[in-house]
Automatic annotation (TrEMBL):
The keyword S-adenosyl-L-methionine does not apply. It comes from Trifolium subterraneum. This is PA domain-containing protein. Belongs to the peptidase A22B family. Residues 84-164 form the PA domain.
Amino acid sequence: MVSFEGVYSVVFVFLFGVSLVLAGDIVHHDDVAPTRPGCENNFVLVKVPTWIDGVENDEYVGVGARFGPTLESKEKHANHTRVVIADPPDCCSKPKNKLTSEIILVHRGKCSFTTKANIADEAGASAILIINYRTELFKMVCEENETDVDIGIPAVMLPQDAGLNMERHIKNNSIVSIQLYSPLRPLVDVAEVFLWLMAVGTILCASYWSAWTAREAAIEQEKLLKDASDDYVAESVGSRGYVEISTTAAILFVVLASCFLVMLYKLMSFWFVEILVVLFCIGGIEGLQTCLVALLS
């Protein structure tokens, strides 16, 4: 038998675990942004660890462009490359500074992303970092009139604070070098397996706890029936604080919850998140009420 609080705990653990997994998703598929030859990459999160004058510094996160070659997936294979500021900063015309396979840091605006990348590629840069004019990231796509894109260097969008911080160090005559790599998501995520086992363990513990408390309550009730008077017995008989659920029902709950998680992972959307928030609120209120009643009694 499983109590209601056990069921709510399991639902919370299942859904919260999936939300963590989804938050860490590395590849962002987009069916809205146009794709064409040379402009068909997935939008991937890119890790950008930095070194200032040879000393390891902050690590930033950017997003790869729809165009250009894909990045290395393992940190140990990614090269340490020096970063230089573009002159002009927007990189909408040929840079005045001579490049020898450095990574060029440019600002967003005045021309298209592909124009910036092409100019940087022709100037000899090994990659281009584009600073967004907001703190969030932006998906870089090709223009509608570009039918055949051929860009030979990776392009990565950085949030404004990260790009300006990197630019400030370079302007202070510091040598800034970075790595660019996009880690692959494993086929089997250990965190997902752990969360599933934790949720199933919660069900088993809740079942055992409910059975144990029900047995203790039955023994106590039996003692009262033997010792109390008839009037007291009539008053003491009432509804129980737990709900009996069979083993089959518990297993069915695990299966249905697992199917629900798969559906949640595949069909994640804004309205689905709102439904989850409502379910969390209902489950939390019910669980809090049960805990308060148990403590007061």
